[in-house]
Amino acid sequence: MSETYVKGEVRALEGDMVVAEAMRQINPDVVAAYPITPQTEIVQTFSEFVADGLVDTEFIAVESEHAAMSACIGASAAGARAMTATCGAGLALMWEMLWCASGMRCPITMAVVNRSLSAPLNILTDQTDMMGARDAGWVQLFAENHQEVYDNALQTIRIAEHPDVMLPVMHGLAGFVLGHTLGRLEILSDEVVKQFIGQYKPSYSLLDIDHPTTFGAYDHWDYFFEHKRQQWEGMNNALRVIPEVGQEFGKLTGRYYGFVESYMLDDADVAILIIGSATGAAKVAADRMRADGVKAGVLKLRCFRPFPAQAVADALKGRKAVAVMERSSCFGGETSPVSAEVCSALYLRSLPIKVVTYVYGLGGRDTVPDEFCQVYHDLLKIVETGVAEPIFRYLALRDY
Amino acid sequence: MELKGWKETSIAGLVFDAGSSVEYETGMWRSSRPIIDLERCTHCMFCWVYCPDGAIQVENSKVVGIDLKHCKGCGICAEECPKKVITMVDECEAKTEAVK
Q1: pLDDT < 70 positions in chain A
Q2: Which ipTM score applies to this complex?
Q3: What span, in angstroms and rounded, lies between the C-alpha atoms of A77 and A255?
Q4: What is the pTM of this model?
Q5: Is A42 within 8 Å of A180 (Cβ atoms)?
Q6: How far does the CA of residue B87 sit from the closest CA of chain A (Å)?
Q7: Which of A103, A203, A213 has its CB closest to that of B15?
Q8: How far is CA A25 from CA A67, A258, A385, in A?
Q9: B window 12-41, beta carbon within 8 A of A
């Protein structure tokens, strides 16, 4: 490629530190946050940056995640660039306010260090927390590795504050697997970050005393629906803005982002669709299957809300069977949050691809390449027999 | 009040002008209606102070009636009136009475 990119500094950081470092460079006006394992290091590290005078941020040490999001909403309505971070049970406690943030069109951004939801008590990673917030009107991105954690953190600002979007954005990273492990990544200079994210210029602000405005007023049956319809529009616009921002970021850094990343997929017969940190293990499995002459591929989903149905359908078109990997406890549906979206995307475009759902890796259970190879073997059998049942499966579960 | 579509109405329901509640008629929510006996009323203004909707109509320091377009029928005025000259009447009956 002939283009020249800005040079980053190569660093080794824990995933949580990556988020804190990105927040230092973003230098938000307000951060209101509450520590919770495995997100604690983000808040702890960032509060040190505040204490050391490295940022201008007003840091609010709140008494709960519900209060954290409430304070961010107030700050955002006042015209501030507001950020927070949480995980698992913390996100669950925020749930009511997640809807207020999106409904009030507050472009708050937040890292979610993905953690399971108890009980049984568990602090390790899966994506149940963010899947539980999937309909709350937040844009949702996920990272596979440390570099993506950093790059997502910067891009969320641009996506959230885009005038056609004006929605809060959360970006997920696996607790412990990314959050507490060292990873290599390139950090941009403070100046480049500052230029990329730009200044937040709110259209309306509580502090604009020349144009007094009421935020969050009561809405009756006569207008509530209309204001909700506006949120759908913001979400639909995010489908355009997310790849636009990803391309602009790519032109700057050489790291281009869209909705999905295909791995060995173009000629694949069987494919694994997956979100997040276990993607690497699936790619290793695809390599092994390829070595054995099996046309195996991986489709990594970076963005879950808005759901990029067209991009997923385009990528899966021509595949014979797809395994959708679901890392969340998602009881009661015939499929799962991710799988239901994939089935819908394929069905509505009349793509006759066999789809099976695999729940995997709950509560921090590691999923290794051999287990993804087993998924590919299952898919080959489905292609051979034409029988997909059972369509809902559990990977690496004892007694299964 | 003319209702706007989702493209025209303010984002997230932001309100820019003061006094918008005057345009918003809430009287239709009422299930019971306050009736003031103005002959016994001492014009102490307790009802005016306590009314959460500013629906007590006052002219020249005298209570003259109730703004039924905005009174939600909460009954606080009747509860607080020291002379007990405000009675809450079933809204359906009050309407029927008015028609008679």
Answers
A1: 1-2
A2: 0.90
A3: 33
A4: 0.94
A5: no
A6: 29
A7: A213
A8: 25, 23, 54
A9: 12-16, 18
